[in-house]
């Protein structure tokens, strides 16, 4: 063997593996033979002092990858900042230090502070495989994390990435627990609070399981992928921002854990609290309002679940030195008219522009949340929020924020639209949040920005047979067809009963 036996040229695979570093090697490459590398082997790759650990996928065909070349997935390529012609060094990594802590938790043990920090450190450094992370997420599912463990995990997640400091004075923030389609209050709330003269540097997420996240909706109106320096310039100029948190390195372990949680579909109160509060703490928020919709098809389904989650949020926020308030809201039915990034953006703008046809429920919810945040800052709550919205100050501040983030643009509309009508006459008594959200996702949301669902009837409305209940908006005929097929199958998203 030569001195270069552990090295191979690197090329991009141009494959999106969603935050998971993957390396591709041909089955006949000398490293696979000499080092015993096989499919799913964890491999450490070093280049110019940078190291990552990637999962191996073995190529068996002859056409795509030469035997003596390694290809990196998009995530691995970006993490290594590879230049053309680069040659990487490959080796077996040391076993992750946190493996014993994960194993102990799987068998019913408790996590201490050192164990939490080891797990989060190994997660951020990508030393844990998806199997390791899956075992950890599973061991935390349900109520398997107590409050002390949740606090330790939150602190570890907060400290694993960047932390923003906005100086003295209250830094306001809000978060919605989720599960309620169309509940896009954040752009309105940020505009009101910033117009009131308070600091509200809002970082938001893209959709995980919903038809739109706040960042998805905001992105159809203004750029959201700002770095820390650009974000700071916006906040210093306008008092607030609405930016995507994924590019700011705030609680980076959270995004990696969410990638595992999403396909497993496990609910963990402890992981939810750690996710929310670690990002708020890293973003420098001192006063946090949690909007908690409660309803049978929302994420929080009962008063008992809401009380349990509220207690844990309050306890962990106290340990982090944050002032926290819980705002319980009705989670029984979608909010506004639009479900999907552009459709929700149209609703947001209608409220800010004081359009007579703006959805009244979205306006009321935004005023409730903004008022509660202003109360936390010691000002005149909801009345002040209504004055700022109705007088146009909130709209002006929102447009200024959009301009500072890179420029405002009007949201577009989908080329394919088809109504779904009532099968019978009667009164609408319920709307299934989950089914209506799935229809919006099948139509293409959030990836297709103008796709989704627009409601034409609400709970309490009386409808005639054949009257439109909602319309499906899609950018392609195929996605429109998939959404309509699902809407016609099984139980209806709208419950229509005889009028009393």
TrEMBL record:
One of the record's GO molecular function terms: thymidine phosphorylase activity
Query: InterPro entries in the record, alphabetically?
Result: Glycosyl_Trfase_fam3, Glycosyl_Trfase_fam3_N_dom, Glycosyl_Trfase_fam3_N_dom_sf, Nuc_phospho_transferase, PYNP-like_C_sf, PYNP_C, Pyrmidine_PPase_CS, Thym_Pase_Put
Listed A to Z, the keywords are: Glycosyltransferase, Transferase
* Cited PROSITE patterns: THYMID_PHOSPHORYLASE
Q: What class of enzyme is it?
A: transferase
- Catalytic activity annotated for this protein? thymidine + phosphate = 2-deoxy-alpha-D-ribose 1-phosphate + thymine
Q: Which GO terms describe its cellular component?
A: cytosol
* GO process annotations (BP): pyrimidine nucleobase metabolic process; pyrimidine nucleoside metabolic process
Q: What is this protein called?
A: Putative thymidine phosphorylase
Lineage per the UniProt record: Bacteria, Pseudomonadati, Pseudomonadota, Alphaproteobacteria, Rhodobacterales
């Amino acid at each position: 063997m030569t001195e270069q036996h552990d090295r191979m040229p690197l090329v991009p695979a141009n494959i999106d593996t969603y935050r998971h570093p993957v390396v591709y090697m041909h089955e006949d490459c000398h490293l696979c033979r000499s080092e015993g590398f096989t499919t799913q082997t964890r491999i450490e790759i070093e280049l110019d002092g940078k190291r990552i650990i990637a999962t191996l996928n073995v190529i068996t065909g002859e056409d795509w990858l030469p035997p003596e070349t390694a290809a990196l997935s998009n995530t691995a390529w970006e993490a290594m900042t590879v230049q053309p012609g680069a040659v990487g060094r490959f080796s077996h990594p040391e076993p992750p230090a946190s493996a014993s802590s994960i194993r102990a938790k799987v068998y019913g043990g408790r996590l201490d502070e050192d164990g939490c920090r080891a797990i989060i450190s190994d997660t951020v450094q990508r030393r844990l495989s998806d199997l390791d992370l899956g075992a950890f997420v599973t061991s935390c599912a349900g109520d398997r994390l107590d409050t002390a463990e949740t606090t330790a995990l939150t602190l570890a997640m907060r400290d694993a990435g960047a932390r923003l400091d906005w100086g003295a004075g209250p830094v306001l923030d809000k978060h919605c627990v989720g599960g309620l389609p169309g509940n896009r209050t954040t752009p309105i709330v940020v505009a009101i609070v910033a117009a009131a003269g308070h600091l509200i540097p809002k970082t938001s997420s893209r959709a995980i399981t919903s038809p739109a996240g706040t960042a998805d909706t905001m992105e159809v109106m203004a750029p959201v992928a700002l770095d820390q320096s650009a974000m700071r310039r916006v906040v210093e100029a306008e008092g607030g921002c609405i930016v995507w948190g994924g590019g700011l390195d705030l609680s980076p372990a959270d995004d990696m854990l969410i990638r595992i949680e999403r396909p497993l579909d496990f609910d963990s109160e402890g992981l939810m609290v750690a996710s929310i509060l670690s990002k708020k703490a890293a973003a420098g928020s001192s006063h946090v309002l949690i909007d908690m919709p409660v309803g049978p098809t929302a994420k929080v389904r009962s008063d008992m679940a809401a009380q349990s989650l509220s207690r844990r949020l309050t306890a962990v926020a106290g340990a982090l030195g944050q002032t926290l308030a819980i705002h319980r809201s009705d989670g029984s039915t979608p909010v506004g008219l639009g479900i999907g990034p552009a459709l929700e953006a149209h609703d947001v703008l209608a409220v800010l522009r004081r359009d007579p046809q703006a959805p009244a429920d979205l306006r009321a919810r935004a005023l409730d949340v903004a008022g509660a945040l202003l109360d936390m800052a010691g000002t005149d709550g909801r009345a002040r929020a209504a004055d700022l919205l109705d007088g146009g100050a909130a709209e002006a501040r929102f447009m200024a924020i959009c301009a500072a983030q890179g420029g405002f643009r009007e949201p577009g509309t989908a080329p394919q639209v088809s109504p779904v009508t009532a099968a019978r006459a009667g009164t609408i008594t319920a709307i299934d949040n989950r089914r209506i959200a799935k229809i919006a996702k099948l139509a293409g949301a959030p990836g297709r920005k103008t796709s989704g669902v627009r409601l034409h009837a609400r709970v309490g409305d009386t409808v005639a047979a054949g009257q439109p209940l909602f319309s499906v908006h899609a950018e392609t005929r195929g996605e429109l067809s998939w959404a309509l097929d699902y809407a016609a199958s099984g139980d209806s998203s709208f419950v229509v009963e005889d009028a009393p």
